[in-house]
Design goal:
The protein is of the alpha/beta class and 442 residues long. Helix content is 30%, strand content 18%. It has a domain of 227 residues: Dihydrodipicolinate Reductase, domain 2, CATH 3.30.360.10. The strands form 2 sheets. The chain has a 9-stranded mixed sheet with strand order 14-13-12-11-7-10-9-8-15. The chain is globular, with a radius of gyration of 21 Å.
């Protein structure tokens, strides 16, 4: 079994067959139509049970912080997976996981990786730990789902890929927004050939990212902080998926405009592909204009936003309590913290997640993915391709994970794919620093 098979030469694999909203995986999606319990009990399963349509994939979680908090609604509602163990340095988070899932908890990832009930590890730890934790998981024969960015250097990426291939386990990097159904459906429309080849992509996102609660290292670029590592990883992934070609060159300019938040808070980049297509990427996390206004006031997570909340992130940081210890207050709002709010299910207005306004220009038309539909603008008419509402958020990640582990299907978002995205992100930093174009190998 190949742990990290490359996409075919000349572009990304097709995201799937069929109509609107069909994912890459053809495996049945066993989704719970009713509201999931916020504190489910996890039944004990026989050791070594195979993964099948009826047997959930047993996942251990490394890191119960912000990333896990965002994935938790998926884990609770998708019947194809089961959380069976976790580790975290925070005692309160471990205690809540033990209560919620009736499952063992550990204070070290070594102990978690050694747990024989775990088939795959979800690594939701800070960026700087991804490489060592992935290699450790591989040594114990565990499949790996690791959050983006994959790592902080290309050498670390190579070591992660080599470790997983040597161990015969799958390495998948996500969640990234290139998993999102609107972009997968846009890619399917492009693959149909009706509009001709992709020639240009415009992508932008304006958020308050830089003014959300941050740990100290999240404001230091050299430790993986700033919008390039955390947000360009999404945007680059999306445009690579839609272009369907190899990126060959990048030119970028970065914005670092607030001395109190001493890392990159904005960027604009031009990315060229090997067939002559190009993509323009713009991102600002400085908390002024909110580009969700151009997406029907649907937020990144697929929830409706209230325009009256404008400026909330900046106002909160003016509170002396936040300025004194925003890292602690961030931890308190995540899983296990005193300010943590469990996910609420059954929202009637949930639509798909997204990463800001985007238009793909093809030879004979344009494609505009939105949270609830994909608009197609041809020579003679425009049409809307509606997207069914998701019953489980981020189910696309589980599609890919279960198809890989259960069916041996090579994932799109494997280590090689994520390494190429990181190469572009690093090249953006280099391009801005040296004020020149940077050639890419990816």
């Amino acid at each position: 079994m190949s742990a990290a098979a490359r996409p075919p030469e000349g572009g990304a694999p097709s995201p799937g067959e069929g109509g609107a909203g069909v994912s890459r995986s053809t495996a049945p999606r066993l989704r719970n139509g009713s509201a999931a319990q916020s504190r489910p009990s996890v039944a004990q399963r026989p050791e070594g049970s195979p993964v099948s349509d009826l047997e959930p994939l047993r996942i251990g979680v490394a890191g119960l912080g912000r990333a896990f908090t965002l994935m938790l609604p998926t884990f609770l509602q998708d019947e194809r997976i089961r959380l069976v163990a976790a580790c975290d340095p925070r005692e309160a988070a471990r205690a809540q996981f033990a209560r919620d899932f009736d499952a063992p908890v550990y204070d070290s990832i070594e102990a978690l990786a050694a747990d024989e009930s775990v088939q795959a590890l979800y690594l939701a730890s800070p960026h700087q730990f991804h490489a060592e934790q992935t290699k450790l998981a591989a040594r114990y024969g565990k499949h790996v789902l690791v959050e983006k960015p994959m790592a902080l250097t290309l050498r670390e990426c190579d070591e992660m890929i080599e470790a997983c291939e040597r161990a015969g386990v799958f390495l998948i990097v996500g969640h990234c927004h290139s998993f999102d159904t609107p972009y997968l459906e846009a890619r399917r429309i492009i693959d149909s050939g009706e509009l001709g080849g992709v020639r240009m992509i415009q992508s932008m996102n304006y958020t308050d990212f830089l003014y959300r609660p941050r740990r100290p290292e999240e404001l230091r670029t050299e430790e993986g902080g700033g919008v390039v590592f955390s947000q360009a990883a999404h945007q680059v992934d999306v445009v690579r998926l839609l272009a369907g070609r190899r990126a060959v060159r990048v030119r970028a300019v970065l914005g670092q405009w607030d001395p109190a938040r001493p890392t990159e808070g904005a960027y604009t980049a031009l990315l060229w592909f090997d067939n002559g297509a190009c993509a323009s990427l713009t991102y600002s996390g400085y908390g002024h204009f909110d580009s969700d206004e151009w997406c029907g006031w649907i937020g990144e997570m697929g929830n409706a936003k209230d325009p009256a909340d404008y400026g909330q992130a900046r106002r909160r940081l003016r509170d002396p309590r936040w300025l004194a210890d925003e890292a602690r207050l961030k931890a308190e709002a995540t899983y296990g913290g005193p300010a943590y709010k469990p996910p609420v299910f059954g929202a009637s207005n949930l639509v798909h997640q997204h990463f800001g306004p985007l238009i793909v220009s093809c030879e004979r038309g344009d494609v505009r993915p939105l949270p609830d539909a994909v608009w197609v603008y041809g020579d003679d008419e425009r049409r809307q391709v509606p997207l069914p509402s998701p019953s489980v958020p981020r189910f696309e990640v589980i599609d890919e994970l279960v198809a890989a582990v259960g069916q041996g299907r090579a994932p799109l978002h494997d280590g090689h794919w994520a390494r190429a995205t990181l190469e572009i992100c690093l090249a953006m930093l280099q391009s801005a620093r040296e004020r020149r174009d940077v050639e890419l190998v990816c």
